[in-house]
Fold this protein.
Amino acid sequence: MKNKISNLPMLGARFLLCLSSALLALLLSLQFTLFNESYLLSTLESTNYFPTVAHTAKTVCEGLFSQAGFGAGLVTNYISEDTVTADITSALYNRFRNAGLKTNARFATLAVNLQDAMNAETGVIASEDEYARFMSLQASCEASYQTMVSPPFDTPLSIVLQYRSMRAVLFPAVAILILLSVFSLFKLSENMKQFFDNISRGLLPAGFACVLAGLSFVLFSGFQTWMPAENIAHTAFTKWIGGLFPYLAVLGILIGGAGLAVYAFLVRQIHLKQKSGAKGKGGKLISTPVPPSRKADGAQPAVRQAQSAAAPSALPASPAPAAAPAQRQAVSPAQEHQAHQQPAQTTAPVQNQAGQNGVTVSLPQNSNQENAPGNRNIRLP
């Protein structure tokens, strides 16, 4: 229980790192997509929004011209695809900068132009009723056109732009949270191994959460139905909102990849440390103590050689076969006959305790009958 309580600060710092990293990924995704004016313009261009609006505006204005008794071809003198693209781009520029709607009146001279054309064709100046009809046509065409070139999906865009204005506060706040969590983990960790382990454990869940959140938003939010399908901006709106997921997923993968990289670095360091430790143990010479008996056995040949060379009290070895005749001359014939009848004897050198030059004692191998004192042969050199 005490261990769990003592780990609470470290778990809290790790959770703070995970949360702040996920928020940073979300803010960066919004900065690249919904908060970005260029992203919206590129989305409108890729979905052919500008040509569609230009065609619709021409169709509506041509219908108004036809109802007023004028040729539909006059509309091309006032609006085109280029004018539609320029007016929508200008409206979005002002909207992102909260500068209000500043539009260009494309049909401002329509009534005057129709009056001049009538006078040139018939030579008759238009009456007040006719001029009022020209002005009504001009107002209708202008109103329809301005509605079509206004910023698309203005209500969702207004909500997004409200959060966009808070970027100056959100980004520094998230950065402070990340630094605070990293500093806390550094202070709470006992060593660098534990510190890197905590960093990895904080980044991996953050990356997984980003990917999971983006995938869940695309699959279960139903954003495709937020705008009616018959709306002219439906395709552009769907792509504009849906483009948030790829960026969030990529940033989540990067954050998770950073956690994996930290973990791999930690594992490699541990492996190298273990490898170097094993190599050091394998190359070290270990001296094992030799038992006293082995030391004595190993030293006996040298000691014996030194004693036989230096100590005069050491008894000489058994006489060589070449010296046998000289020894036989000192033995009586009876003793020699008795020695032939006895079995082979084993001679063993015995050190003379009295300090004499040496005595060789020959004992028979058979200890039953031949071990009597009378059967022993003592030969002096």
User: Anything to note?
Assistant: The longest strand covers residues 345-350. Confidence is low (pLDDT under 50) at residues 283-288, 293-303, 305-331, 343-376. Residues 267 and 273 are 10 Å apart (CA to CA).
